[in-house]
């Protein structure tokens, strides 16, 4: 495929912008066939797309609040942050280093109230709960529409491995950084997401995707009122490769430290699912 990429200039440097489609949450909710086709095409080709959530005003205001909650959380001392470090726990708690940090809160922990969320976040638990609940509804809308495209003659096959009431590791994960004084010092963190779908909100350039047709890197622009959605390995496997889990990484376009914040929702399958093509 030959495609002329849009360019952007960041800190005096020209960069390639990833050509992401925009899918409307409203049209998906209306079961619009054209939008479903567009969604499938984006999930099948790049595995990355924007979801337009501009009409979900309360949700977007919760995303804004989560940026402040994240900033407040990471303003704590390293000693306090380490109290939320759960050794040998892949999906829960604080992880970090000198120039970056992440905090992950499992949806099941919020629902079942078994593992308490960090005390500094507890006063904002309403925002956390609403964000998790609405994000989970949204990813189910995407899942249902993808399922219809994949298996037009059967009821939501993908739902069978994503039951809203079964145990799963879906989570809210917030990030500080990483950004560095020198771009050359940024380490390689290329990966694919292991789960089903990821929703990402960020305030800055940082995400790069590997274009499948020429293996070149392109930058994902943050778009106000839009989630950046990633198809993960689980959907790639369950769909027998018809949905694409794209390699991506987080970097910075130029030298120079500037705080970067990201709010993500990781939608993961039921814990007892066997990962084989459906
Ligand atoms: O911060 C970002 O831009 C993306 C983070 C990411 O890819 C991940 O957490 O899997
Ligand atoms: Fe990722």
From TrEMBL:
The keyword Iron applies. It comes from the Eukaryota. Keywords: Iron, Metal-binding, Oxidoreductase. Pfam families: 2OG-FeII_Oxy (PF03171). Signal peptide: none annotated. SUPFAM superfamilies: Clavaminate synthase-like (SSF51197). Residues 167-269 form the Fe2OG dioxygenase domain. The keyword Oxidoreductase applies. GO terms for molecular function: metal ion binding; oxidoreductase activity. Coiled coil: none annotated. PROSITE patterns: FE2OG_OXY. PANTHER family: 2-OXOGLUTARATE (2OG) AND FE(II)-DEPENDENT OXYGENASE SUPERFAMILY PROTEIN-RELATED (PTHR47990). Belongs to the iron/ascorbate-dependent oxidoreductase family. This is Fe2OG dioxygenase domain-containing protein. It comes from Arthrobotrys musiformis.
